[in-house]
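Lab notebook, bench 4. The sequencing result for the construct came back, and we need a structural model before the next group meeting so we can plan mutations. Quick request posted to the team channel:

Model the 3D structure of this chain.
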Amino acid sequence: EVQLVESGGGSVQAGGSLTLSCTASGRTYGDYAIAWFRQAPGKEREAISCISQSDGTTYYADSVKGRFTISSDNTKSTVPKNTVHLQMNSLKPEDTAVYYCAGVYLCYSDHVGSGRVWGQGTQVTVSS
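Done. Here's the predicted structure in token form:
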């Protein structure tokens, strides 16, 4: 079982920055790559980024490439967990959405698989 807990999000003006974090824990969290999806009102959920825990491969959707950066802190402590960060710079009003982290099986530089387990979602609002 995997638990995904998100933090960050909020409201920011266009051009600003936010960082989202997703902490993955549980017995099988290492089976998944971690991805970020977002869903804007009236639109379908889209994958925007992912990072592989095995080799660090990353993926970015064209809409965020060059502005968003994904990274991970894999902690082998008493309670193993992995925290994935999504640094979002140069935010635009069209980035307004609910952002979800998800565990996925596939994360390649040009493709990310479907979400298998999901976080609760966090709202990001960018005002013009």
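The mean pLDDT is 92.
Will bring this to the meeting.
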